[in-house]
Amino acid sequence: MNRNVSDPSAFLEKRTWNRFTPLERTSRFLFYFVTLAAIVVSLQTIEIIPEFLLDAPEQIADMFNRMWPPDASYYPSTIHEALMETIHIATVGTLLALILAIPVGVMVAENVTQNKFLNWFARLILVSSRSINSLVWALLFVAIVGPGPLAGALAIAFRSVGFIGKLFGEALEESHKGPIEALEATGAPWFSIMMMGYWPQVLPTFWSVALFRWDINLRESAVLGLVGAGGIGVALSTALELFYWDRVAMVLLSMLVVVALVELVVTQIRKRII
Amino acid sequence: MSMTDTKSGGPKYVPKRNWWVTLAYLAVAGYVAYVLSLFDVSGERLAAGLGHGADFIARMIPPNFERYNLLIEGLLESLQIAVIATTAGVILSLPIGFLAARNLMPAWVTWPARAIIVACRSFHPVIVAILFVKAVGFGALAGTLALVVASIGFIAKLFAEAIEEISLKQIEAIRATGAPFASVITFGVLPQVMGRFIGFTSYQLDSNLRNSTMVGIVGAGGIGGTLFAAFQRFDYDFVAAILISIIAVIMVAEGINNVMRKLYR
């Protein structure tokens, strides 16, 4: 034991510093391994026909040749009406989703609804709404209410409830307790606490989530027509089935214009109001 | 929603009505009524719908897992599409995201890169899948390519935004040592954005998995084709089995994602 105590470097040299614990290191390594294995296995087993791949550039050139020039006369005859229908589907679907999402969001927020069963039940509704794609919702509603825009609007609404409800519930959970406690101290009834305490606090989040979802829904409602749920997708699938590629190009162009316009409107509303 | 307190006899509080907001609500109500008449929604149609719905659900129960071979095959193909599309999308997004970052690149480089990103984002993956089905034929390849496009639109955009938010001090410090551009990237930029990049990737894998179960509807591979066929043949019990399996796979994937996020926090 003749180590020189006054020299701290004698101790420091012996230490090796590790950023991760051995468990973290092993699990990270395992994770890399699993990821790599998944990629390799997928690449080896996926069914790709090489002839199709070699043929692709030719086919793409052929597609663009058939698409150009876009058939402008298809717009007044069919697309305009279908496009309006798409906008209606997205808007009404979002409004319906807002109405449905408010009670679910209130139920899922643990500080508002202090009942474990109701919390769990609301979370189940939200998760199942989000796990089912809007196309599948559309298939289900086409089977229930028949083909047409009503099925599309219902599909959009049921898909959006999960999204809006989740974010609305999170906003409720993050609201400040101060105003709520003040209202409770006056003996205000539950409804007044909701309207005067919580609602003003979550109002901006609520409308910005609604706008965001409306933007998403406009893009999604464009494909619902592929399964017969109305909107521009119907015009697209008719044109596709008949191989009118110039009409397909016109549909895609009009969709691009609408998406760009909506993006513009949404940013303007965001800047001015929220 | 006036708050009155009659017992203490204090002054009654009546909030001022905001007429513009009232007007906006009335306009929205009018619009909804107009659209519902356009969609020809009526009480009897809704009642008939409820009847159909009950019938539909009755035919879905019990779910029929007899053709599990078809089911597993489709799900595996969907998984393959999602994994490959995410990998390829990430590899392609890295350079595009770098080129689109306005604080690292001159304007003549960022504009084309941004145009690529916007083009990738503008259409729903299913519509992109239709175009790829025409280009490379039916099958998993078309779906994979469609989801690669979707992944680039999402990851490259967020990656570029993450790079634009980094702290420039570390970059300056590395530049001051006379390091070449590649070293500035690897030691100055990447360590600052890598953590977020992993988050984007896991989110996109999730999203690709959801979409890979859908691109089959237009013939681009995966379980979607089986699902659509079962719908058209009114095999609603098989439809129920497929939907349950899809939801189970998505939930397992979400669980794995959560574990991964904890691991890389």
Question: Helix and strand layout, with pairings?
Answer:
The complex is a heterodimer of chains A (274) and B (265).
Chain A: H1 9-12, H2 22-45, H3 50-67, H4 74-108, H5 116-131, H6 134-145, H7 149-173, H8 177-185, H9 190-224, H10 232-241, H11 245-272
Chain B: H1 19-38, H2 43-60, H3 68-100, H4 107-121, H5 125-136, H6 140-164, H7 168-176, H8 181-212, H9 223-232, H10 236-263
Helix pairs in contact in B: 2-10, 3-4, 3-6, 3-8, 3-9, 4-6, 5-6, 6-8, 7-8, 8-10, 9-10
Computed structural class of chain B: mainly alpha
In which range does the helix fraction of chain A lie? over 70%
Strand content of chain A: under 5%
**CATH architecture label name of the largest domain in chain A:** Orthogonal Bundle
SSE pattern of chain A, N- to C-terminal: HHHHHHHHHHH
Give the N-terminus to C-terminus distance of chain B in angstroms.
46 Å
Estimate the mean pLDDT confidence of chain A.
85
The residue ranges of chain B in which pLDDT falls below 50 over 5 or more consecutive positions are 1-5
Q: Write the H/E string of chain B, N to C.
A: HHHHHHHHHH
Task: Label the overall shape of chain B.
Answer: extended
CA gyration radius of chain A, whole angstroms: 28 Å
Number of domains of chain A: 2
